[in-house]
Write a structure and sequence with these properties.
The chain is an alpha+beta fold. 30% of the residues lie in helices and 34% in strands.
């Protein structure tokens, strides 16, 4: 519930800070065409990932259907920290979106429409007051209204991989963000009663693509390589994690998390095995006569009372070597 500044309920102390809203684009269409018991489960899973990243830098005030409304008071974040949270939030959302869509070939609308979703993040700096309304704490004030109004803007939604950030000029000035250096473009919105709102806009997908490739900070448990007599696209289809035909909503807690996904070149997934979490990398390099496939396993977290890393590595060696042999046989090379 949004309350105008002249409300007689606004008697709290006035504070200043920065608001950040993460909003799922395409959410209404998704729910309208999804099963009532499946669509919301996937949307909730995606929003949970968003919340996990926004904390602890920002305090989550509430989840508003398809959006997470968060804030922080002045002096707790600067421009660098805000942009870091925005980039990390979008990256986590896109990774989870990819993980969910790659985990299933189910034809139900709830699974099939997942790739059409995306995320936009709106940031604004201003004043607010805290009030208890209908038994819960609410942030109120004209600046709270502005950041929510900006969710409905003239930029629209261009489909998958079209996520963007919209940062008001007030936020840019308050947090000393160099908009030009960050590749942001000037933008203006107009709203009744609020007037002109100057802002800066940038593509989150573009910023994500500029991030460096994933690099493990953990030791390699196992590395195996094999030359396969086929092109990278064919090898990818064999060595990339397979899809299940079952609906993903029943498996959200157990699907592999995609860390990096560059088709026909490199993939990294986080695997939750019974004994430990592991990072599984497949790198494909075209060579004369085929494709050099390199498979690496990295340490994650070993569970209590689990076998040693040496024992886990021995098991992985058996599975990995069998996988490479199987791929070789499939492409017409024995041994």
């Amino acid at each position: 519930m949004l309350v105008w500044p002249n409300s007689d309920r606004m008697r709290g102390m006035v504070e200043s800070g920065t608001f950040l809203i993460a909003d799922i684009s395409g959410y209404t269409e998704y729910l309208a065409n999804s099963d009532i018991d499946h669509g919301p489960a996937i949307a909730t899973d995606l929003l949970t990932r968003v919340v996990d990243v926004m904390r602890p830098r920002f305090e989550v005030n509430k989840v508003e259907g398809d959006a997470v409304f968060s804030y922080t008071t002045d002096g707790t974040v600067d421009g660098i920290a805000l942009l870091e949270v925005i980039d990390r939030t979008y990256a986590a959302f896109r990774r989870r979106l990819l993980s969910v869509s790659q985990a299933t070939s189910c034809g139900c609308p709830s699974c099939g429409l997942v790739p059409r979703l995306d995320l936009k993040l709106i940031a604004h700096s201003g004043s607010f007051s805290r009030q208890r309304i209908a038994g819960r704490a609410e942030l109120v004030g004209s600046d709270v209204i502005i950041v929510h109004r900006l969710l409905k803007n003239s930029l629209g939604f261009a489909g998958a991989a079209s996520g963007y950030m919209l940062v008001t000029d007030a936020c840019v000035q308050q947090l000393e963000i160099n908009a030009q250096t960050e590749g942001l473009s000037g933008h203006v919105e107009h709203y009744p009663h609020l007037g002109e709102v100057k802002a800066w806009v940038g593509s989150l997908q573009y910023r994500l693509e500029q991030q460096p490739s994933w690099q493990s900070r953990s030791p390699i448990i196992l590395q195996r390589a094999g030359l396969l007599p086929a092109g990278p696209a064919d090898v990818w289809d064999v060595l990339a994690p397979g899809r299940s035909e079952s609906c993903v909503t029943n498996r959200l807690s157990s699907i592999h998390e995609v860390v990096e996904w560059r088709p026909f070149e490199r993939l990294v997934v986080e695997v939750q095995a019974p004994d430990a979490s592991l990072y599984h990398e497949v790198a494909l390099d075209p060579t004369v006569g085929g494709t050099l496939a390199t498979i690496r396993w990295y340490r994650g977290r070993r569970r209590r009372h689990a076998p040693s890393w040496e024992e886990i590595g021995s098991r992985l060696a058996t599975l990995t070597e069998a996988s490479l042999r199987g791929a070789g046989v499939r492409f017409g090379r024995s041994g």
